[in-house]
Specification:
alpha/beta; Rossmann fold; 8-stranded mixed beta sheet; 14 helices; disordered C terminus; binds ligand PMT
Length: about 400
């Protein structure tokens, strides 16, 4: 499963560092090319020679121990990694990563890396539950770091509680699943709408909303990374457009409807994350409205409901809607799912801290016709998008050469 994957294994200084040796061995057996970085404290628990022997590569301990003058080791390691795996990840290492500290080889490599990071924490239960550790993990999660939860059991410090490093077999499985996700939507055509719409009433003034496009972009990027052919229909957004997909720019709800209609027949999956205006001005003045005394009354008419129109037309497409709510989330989401004939709906309480418009994180509740399927706590929009698409992939089965792995 891991053939050809280059994994940087960061082993940090907890008693569970000894399990890092078994983990290294299993990753190598699964076909991965493993390069180990140990912190100074990790090297007090396990001899670097053990890891060198198991990985069949030199172990990195010191940023300044440059062996090849043609490269800078931490940059070289960071650039070539398909994945950085921190196991065990101590509270200290997580804190340093959250703060962006690069005072050792592991910290410098992590700061230079653009590859994904998976961390398997291991520590005393009180350290794990300390507000600082919780906050650091939340911050790292919002930046895209994924976590493999520690297990509950006898800890080296004597407590029987949560904090044990996940078993090496579980960690290898999680890594395999992570790489397998790259195939989950292979051969699928996915259409995502993102951002807000703009409804003009004169050449310089319009009605819009707070959508930044981040949620839709995160879904589109996750679909692309899962192997799908993606079309992104983007309204008004405040983010750079993602690469590796077809982009259709639109402004109004009407333009979004036309764009969605034009690609719908060919699509396998449509995700409507855009915040579409429900009303638009009846008249669009050709020249800038002049200020007159008193009040201005703007007459509005309903826009077309794009999601409902697609729901009526669908022939085998898997349709995912969003429901942005500020009250009675479940009830309104289920109502929209039924009325708009969706297969899944993502209930988004936009009044909740860490969720909704503009931010980098979201917390959503996903429903199908039978009710709640999954409730996702605050996490990066990218992770939420990936979790949503995994649910979709499970439901539609595979089209590409490799089947879905849930
Ligand atoms: O872009 P971000 O800043 O990251 O913010 C993300 C988000 C909050 C916009 C996103 O997570 C979200 O909740 N999107 C849906 C916003 C919305 O318009 O919800 P709604 O409950 O009003 O609409 C329900 C569904 O019908 C949505 O899928 C919407 O795209 C669709 N709709 C609505 C009106 C309309 N005329 N046509 C539609 O297709």
């Amino acid at each position: 499963m891991l053939q050809g994957k280059r994994i940087v294994l960061g082993i940090t200084g907890g008693i569970a560092a000894y399990k890092g040796a078994a983990l290294c061995s299993k990753l190598v057996q699964a076909g991965a090319e493993v390069h180990v970085i140990m912190t100074e404290s990790a090297a007090k628990f396990v001899a670097p020679l053990t890891l060198q022997t198991l990985s069949r590569h030199p172990v990195y301990l010191d940023t300044f121990d440059e062996r090849d003058p043609s490269v800078v080791s931490h940059i070289e390691l960071a650039d070539k990694a398909d994945l950085i795996l921190l196991a065990p990840a101590t509270a200290n290492t997580l804190a340093k990563l959250a703060a962006g500290l690069a005072d050792d080889m592991l910290g410098a490599t992590l700061l230079a890396a653009t590859s994904p990071v998976i961390a398997a924490p291991a520590m005393n239960v009180h350290m794990y539950e300390h507000p600082a550790t919780v906050a650091n993990m939340e911050l790292l999660g919002s930046r895209g770091v994924r976590f493999i939860d520690p297990g509950t059991g006898q800890l080296a410090c004597g407590y029987v509680a949560k904090g044990r490093l996940a078993e090496p077999e579980e960690i290898v499985l999680a890594v395999e699943r992570y790489f397998a996700a790259g195939k989950l939507l292979e051969g699928r055509k996915v259409v995502v709408t993102a951002g807000g719409t703009v409804e003009r009433f004169d050449p310089v003034r319009y009605l819009t909303n707070d959508s930044s496009g981040k949620m839709g972009f995160a879904i589109a990027e996750a679909a692309r990374d899962m192997g799908a052919q993606v079309t992104l229909i983007a309204g008004r957004v405040s983010q750079p457009l993602p690469g590796g997909m077809k982009i259709m720019r639109v402004e109004s709800a009407q333009e979004m409807l036309e764009a969605a209609n034009s690609v719908f027949d060919d699509a396998d999956i449509v995700v409507k994350a855009a915040a579409v205006a429900d009303y638009r001005p009846v008249v669009r003045h050709a020249s800038k409205l002049k200020k007159t005394g008193g009040t201005l009354v703007l007459e509005l008419e309903k826009t077309a409901d794009i999601l409902a129109a697609l729901g009526e037309r669908k022939k085998g497409q898997f349709l995912v809607g969003f429901a942005a709510e500020t009250e009675r989330l479940d009830e309104h989401a289920m109502d929209k799912l039924r009325r708009k004939n969706c297969d899944l709906i993502v209930g988004n309480d936009v009044s909740m801290e860490g969720a909704g418009f503009n931010g980098d994180t979201n917390a959503v509740r996903i429903f199908d016709r039978d009710g709640l399927v999954e409730s996702l706590p605050v996490m990066s929009k990218r992770d939420a998008g990936e979790r949503l698409l995994r649910l979709v992939a499970e439901r539609i089965g595979s089209k590409g050469p490799k089947g879905p792995i849930s």
